[in-house]
Amino acid sequence: MENLPPEIREGVRKRVAADEKPPEIKCFYLNREVDESGISGTGVVAVGIVFPSGRAVLEWVSKRTNANSLGIYEDMDDLQEVHGHKGATKIVWYDEKGDENESAE
Hints:
Elements: H1 6-17, E1 26-32, E2 43-50, E3 56-60, E4 70-73, H2 76-83, E5 89-94, E6 100-102
Antiparallel strand pairs: 1-2, 1-5, 2-3, 3-4, 5-6
């Protein structure tokens, strides 16, 4: 938390002091079963987070291309529409304990 700007750090401290739960951030990864494009490969091809606003950020981690880039999406529906490849790529969510839960999307 010390790496955060002072105004954000103070806001977090106030929330914690007020016994408020911080906004939830959800973590996931994309598990690609079939690589239709022949570019990103199969297996875990990206990791991401969903902010409290619903926006999603995705980082590509494909070892096949070695081109780690970021994508920002309005919501998970947009991300799924672009990268879901009609079910060939699954969203796998991490729960609060770090366990994995595959999305039915």
